[in-house]
Design a protein that fits this description.
Glutamic_endopeptidase, Neprosin, 180 residues, globular, 4-stranded antiparallel β-sheet, 3-stranded antiparallel β-sheet, 0% helix
């Protein structure tokens, strides 16, 4: 399994890049970097492995810092984003990619979301900060899901599952012949 960061302006129709292929990201950590391999992964119905990822805007520089497991690994300089002194949308999710007319690999564990957090991939304890730097959990009216391959994968938002999970998104699926 790999962790990655993607930037795009049009859902990857003409723009978009991944990890260090995105110009402008400033790497600051010598041992942790975008695109690095994650050695431990969860097993369906078995041990769950979690990683902590956050993106936070520095109030002084306005740069967007990426943190992995509580350590800053680098930042996106504010100059990369036009008219964005703060974020007005936040996204969580997963993605697979294959050449045209080839089967898609599974997404996550290969299982569809079922509100059982030892089955499909998830992001938990979702929150974002407003312009006054107050944390908020997303409510249903602030959420929209995007699934361009519903025959192969799915995504579900759970507003508040409880103290351990909080607000969460669960996603994944078997992949297969999903179209281009």
């Amino acid at each position: 399994m790999w962790y990655l960061i993607a930037t795009q302006a049009d859902n990857f129709k003409k723009t978009g890049c991944y990890n260090l292929y995105c110009s402008g990201f400033v790497q600051t950590h010598k041992g942790k970097y975008l695109g690095a391999r994650i050695d431990k992964t969860s097993i369906y119905g078995g041990p769950t492995v979690e990683i902590a990822i956050s993106i936070t805007q520095d109030p002084q520089t306005q740069n967007w810092w990426l943190s992995y497991q509580g350590e800053n690994i680098g930042y996106f300089p504010i100059k990369l984003f036009s008219n964005m002194s703060s974020a007005d949308q936040v996204g969580w999710g997963g993605r697979t990619s294959t050449p045209p007319n080839t089967p898609s690999p599974q997404l996550g564990s290969g299982y569809l979301p079922d509100n059982n957090f030892v089955h499909a991939c998830y992001f938990r304890s979702l929150s974002f900060q407003d312009v006054s730097r107050q944390d908020h959990e997303p409510s249903y009216d602030e959420i929209f899901t995007l699934n361009d391959k519903p025959d192969c994968v799915d995504v579900k938002y759970y507003e508040d599952v409880g103290a351990e999970i909080g607000h969460a998104i669960q996603f994944g699926g078997p992949g297969g012949l999903c179209g281009n």
